[in-house]
Design brief:
The chain is α+β, with helices and mostly antiparallel strands and about 210 residues long. The chain has helices at about 1-30, 160-170; strands at about 65-75, 80-95, 100-110, 120-130, 135-150, 175-185, 195-205. It folds into 2 domains: about 1-35; about 65-214, Porin. A 7-stranded antiparallel β-sheet has the order 1-2-3-4-5-6-7.
């Protein structure tokens, strides 16, 4: 019985070996007369894969909007100081070399600095700024100019509506001025920037008269 089982296994091996040999021979025979490479007409070209869509530029990048609060002090005899504030709108462009150029328009309230003079002034001005990005910190310098008109409210408390009306609608003569300033901005995050600055302001044609005394 053992001898017969061994003979059957030997016969099965021979049959499997013969079958594999026949299949390999048939594959070699077919590979000769047939070319299985895909045949394409001459001049056939393939359309390039669509490029990844470029990321759209942020239309608001560089636009700045905010408020400032400041202290003002006059130099010389008969001068005084006080506090003012403004709102501003600007645009900054950062170049690849980290240089930042910008423009800023602002309007607000400037305290009167002459003893016995107007309580304060409504002003509007435009600044040109030059800065350099150092990570989140951007030191800058700026020069600008504008016009200031005496307020039409008697107290030292600013009135936004009256200030804007007096600045852009009132016909009484105002004083022109220039300003030079330097400071720094620090980007707390992508939407909030804090900064500090110092500057000097020069009035060129005197101070506007107090309209309340006219």
């Amino acid at each position: 019985m053992i001898s017969e089982a061994v003979d059957q296994r030997d016969m099965l091996k021979l049959m499997v070996t013969g079958l594999l040999t026949s299949m390999l021979a048939m594959s070699a025979a077919l590979a000769g007369p047939y070319d299985f490479t895909a045949a394409l007409p001459d001049g056939t070209s393939f359309a390039p894969l669509p490029a990844a869509s470029a990321k759209k530029a942020d239309p608001w990048k560089g636009l700045t909007l905010g408020t400032e609060a400041f202290a003002v002090s006059g130099l010389g005899k008969g001068m005084k100081g006080g506090f003012g504030a403004d709102g501003f709108l600007g645009y900054d462009h950062a170049f690849d070399n980290h240089v930042v150029l910008g423009l800023r328009a602002s309007a607000g309230y400037l305290p009167g600095i002459i003893q016995g003079g107007p309580a304060g002034y409504n002003f509007g001005m435009v600044d040109a700024r030059f800065g350099y990005e150092m990570g989140r910190l951007t030191p800058w310098v700026a020069v600008g100019g504008g016009v200031a008109k005496a307020t039409r409210f008697a107290s030292n408390t600013p009135d936004v509506s009256t200030s804007l009306n007096d600045l852009f609608s009132d016909t009484h003569k105002g004083a022109t001025f220039t300003r030079a300033s330097a400071g720094f901005d620090y980007a707390v995050n992508n939407n909030l920037t804090l900064g500090m600055s110092v500057g000097v302001m020069q009035f060129h044609n005197g101070f506007a008269a107090d309209p309340l005394s006219q």
